[in-house]
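Handout for the seminar on molecular recognition.
Each group receives one record of this type.
Step one: identify the two inputs.
Step two: read the structure output and locate the region that could contact SN-glycerol-3-phosphate.
Step three: write two sentences on what you found, then compare them with the reference statements printed after the record.
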Amino acid sequence: ILAILISAVLSYLLGSFNSSILVVRLLKHQDIREFGSHNAGLTNTLRCFGKGCAALTLVGDLAKGIVAVLLSKGICELLGTGLTAQNDVHFIGYIAGIFAILGHVFPIYYHFKGGKGVLVGVSVFLGIDWKVFLCLIVIFAVVLAISKYVSLGSIIAAACCPVVTFLFQFWQRGDLPMWYLWLNTGLAALMGAWVIYMHRTNIQRLKAGNENKFSFHSKKA
Ligand code: G3P
C-alpha cells in the first residue's frame, strides 16, 4: 500500500509538469491555454506555435509517462512488495499512468488546468509494454490518415486501450490469474475512458462538422 501511495503521489507531481505549457512559456512567453483550442497539448502547440515547440512537447510528455512507470516499478522493487517480481506484471504501471494523467489534466503547478492526457497516456504504455504502445499508435495513425482529425484518432485509440491491453497480456502472460488480467484491463479502460471524456468538446465539434483538421502548418507565427 505504501509503495502504491508513494508511486501515485510522485506520478501526479511528475504528470503536473505540462510540457506544452512549459515549452511555450519558456520559448514564446505565452500561455498555450489562451490559443487555438485552449488545450495544453501537442496538437494545439503544433497548431499555434509550430514544429519546434511541438517537438519539445512531444519529447517532454513522452518522457514523463515512461519515467512515472519506471519510477513506480523502482519504488515497488525498493520496498520489496513483490509486485514487479515478474517482468510482465503491470499493475503498478497502470496506477502510475492514471496518476500521471491526473497530474497532466489537473496540474498542481498551473492552476489545475492542463491537457487531455493523450500523449502522457500513450507514453505510459511505452513504459509498460512497447507492443501495446505500438499497436495504439498504429490505430491512432490509421484513423488520423483516413479522417485527418487528431481528436478522432485519440478517441478511437483510447477506446481500444482495454481491448489491446487484454489481448497482449493474455497472449504474453496467459499463466497469470484471470482476475489479475481483468484488473489491469479495467485500469487501462479507466485511462481510456478518461481521455475520451476529456475530448467531449472535440466530440461536439466532430458532430457539428467544425472540428479542426490536422495540419503541419501552424496558424500563428
Ligand atoms: O491531444 C489532444 C487532441 O486529441 C486534440 O487536441 O487541440 O485539437 O483539441 P485539440
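Reference statements: The chain has nine helices and no strands. Residues 37, 39, 41-44, 116, 118, 150-151, 154, 202, 212 surround SN-glycerol-3-phosphate (CB under 6 Å).
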